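call fold(seq) -> tokens
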Amino acid sequence: MKYVFAFFCAVLLIFSVSCASSGDSQPSPTPSEQAVTEQPAIESTASAEAQPDPEESAVSEAGGQLNLFTWEGMFPQEILDNFESDTGVKINYLNFDTDETMLAKLQTAKGGDYDLVIADDYIIETAIAENLVRKLDTSKLLNYGNINPMYQGQFYDPSDEYTVPYGAGVLTLLYDPSAASLDIKGYGDLWDAGLNNSVGLIANYRVINGVALKVLGESFNTNDLDVIQQAGDKLLELAPNIRVIKDDNLQDDLLSGEISAGIFYTSQATQAKLENPELKVIFPQEGIGFGIMAGFIPSAAPNAEAAYAFLDYILDPLRGAQCFEYLGYYSTFSASDHLISPEYKEFLTLPEGFNSDMEMIENIGAETNEKHEQIWTAFKTAAGRE
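ret:
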């Protein structure tokens, strides 16, 4: 997330509970990008001239309370405060630390207790399968057409019956042109001998194994164990170039010069670019992996009308731009893209006309996942990072 890609990968996370009021910290790393490591909130500078159009937003008659269940720091406080004052709906902001914690609580509540949940794609697929999610009545979302269709019709909700995407974590290839010895165009360039001992990677095995698969022209989600082993062999060739493998604050290693290139979570790339605009964000020629966070209304939500009101509120173009600048995720609302400030646009929106291969990292079977874990362990050992 948040990335995060998601941006977006199913990894094992510890189970613990964290419920508190809304704060300014970013979401914890999650499997969907993995999504995003915790970062300071980013001050939004979305166009001050644009104003939310009250006629383009549904007027809430829900009243009462919205039980919002998600990670900390998912919305600017201004958005939360204005929603309460504009609609009369009080927000009860409840936090979870991992998607698995969220699912366990939703299962215990049998789809009740919460009105709106925002979580990662892979866990939403499970919640839908367990009948814990209600189908959306899109007639109650006047701004529904503002969603970017690129982020719809995905594996977790193929018919767009249940969810509204809120932020995408994109696997980000980022490098410092003043330190790297080559002009990087794709993942495959990370294997270049000129990057010996100068590449940093996030510690998400589905992401990094998937990069090797993409270099070989394969899918992130292949179940062919022989192909996955070929990716493992390819990773071993990358080992001499690896300087660091870690999830937390990898951007600091790029900014300090410890590494000259790497694969980052979306929020890390955002922080790095804000500190050093000369860094280059690359959309790899092999294709892009991404993950999505999305909002859904639980099957027994006590106040579904409040959930619809909030979803429609943030789907407003300007409010959406403010949210994505604060969150540090790629905009999933096409109507918001032109309102995102120039200093953010390069790393919060896809280039105009971009049509490269994009693929989500999906849930896989136990045998396939075990193979991924094996080649990841071998790679870290070869890189001296085990």
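Confidence is low (pLDDT under 50) at residues 1-42, 55-60.
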